[in-house]
């Protein structure tokens, strides 16, 4: 893939571009040598070597000005749990441009090219961590998950609950630890299905002092895990996962056992529900902020694969959708169900009866389960006749996305 524009050339990056790829990331995100060493890397060369597989395993494209890299984007080949089934997802990262080239639409054109690539690869959705929510909203992405951070004083930690099993500290590559997450991800809509690439991203910037602990039942079945480190009398939870209430109690027992060593416990919760309700002393500090954004890459396969609920045979709904970057998603569409089969096709605008009008961002937030149709309608994000809102509420699953990863 190559595209020319005056003195600019768009092409895919390869191993020979590693030096420039790394330099642009360092400049754009202001990563210092000190921060690299604090993260556990021994040298910058070690970081560069670690990033070689990224260029080999991902689709990374950039604009080059007179032979020098000016702007770039990476697409990670990933998978997520989509209401109980696994679908392909394009993970966008490494979005960067040198300041002297801003305002030329370089990222805009790279994003369009990435969407074409993801469509070809059948990655029907795309996720990214936004450095600017307004910027990515303009290109069709929308918030699809929240991150709730919490601070618990040591005196507020739960009292010990009797459990049948015990905690064991393990190596970070422990199979049981990965099995717990694999099962958890298979049960939680929106969760990343972690392969080798995803696990390498999970650990990329962690110090060596990060500890993994696994909860085993009395029958030695792994049902919970925690990833944490202790620093300056603070117990930092990177991730805590439990498959049942016993594992949850066992993990909190373990955290509380550090009460004499720490003054606070800090962590993050990605379930979309506050943690405080589950604690005896609920007066903890919790903050919520938007976390990841997502967008629909290819609307037709997205709608055909969607697990609609309680749909009567023969029902029809018309959609008028606008997409700022993917023209194949813009237009008027008929969504219908015949003999329990979903049919989605483009139709003339004049054929639409009471169309549901929205942009691709709103459609993603609604069908991903992040915001309900009634909420979007009441806040003028969804232009429909009111009688259609209860229909949408009935056919769209209520599962809220869980996404705890970062790339």
What can you see in these coordinates?
- The chain contains twelve helices and 19 strands.
- It has 407 residues and is α+β, with helices and mostly antiparallel strands.
- The strands form three sheets. The chain has an eight-stranded mixed sheet. It has a seven-stranded mixed sheet with strand order 9-10-11-12-13-8-14, sandwiched between helices. Strands 18-17-16-19 form a four-stranded mixed sheet.
- Strand 5, helix 4 and strand 6 form a beta-alpha-beta unit.
Total of helices: 12
* Total E-strand runs: 19
Provide the gyration radius in Å. Answer: 23 Å
Strand order of the largest sheet: 1-2-3-4-5-6-15-7
Helix-residue proportion: 25-40%
| Model regions low in confidence, pLDDT < 50 over at least 5 residues | 39-43, 45-49
Task: Give the DSSP E fraction (strand runs of 2 or more residues).
Answer: 25-35%
Whole-Å distance between the termini?
A: 25 Å
User: How would you classify the helix and strand content by structural class?
Assistant: alpha+beta
Mass-distribution shape = globular
Q: What oligomeric state best describes the polypeptide chains here?
A: single chain
* Biggest sheet character: 8 strands, mixed
Q: How would you state the average pLDDT, rounded?
A: 92
List the helices and strands and how they pair.
Layout: E1 2-5, E2 8-12, H1 18-29, H2 33-38, H3 44-57, E3 59-65, E4 68-82, E5 85-97, H4 106-120, E6 125-128, H5 133-137, E7 142-143, E8 146-153, E9 166-170, H6 175-187, H7 196-203, E10 211-216, E11 222-231, E12 234-242, H8 245-256, E13 264-269, E14 285-290, E15 293-296, H9 299-305, E16 316-322, E17 331-338, E18 341-346, E19 356-359, H10 360-367, H11 373-378, H12 389-395
Parallel strand pairs: 5-6, 12-13, 16-19
Antiparallel strand pairs: 1-2, 2-3, 3-4, 4-5, 6-15, 7-15, 8-13, 8-14, 9-10, 10-11, 11-12, 16-17, 17-18
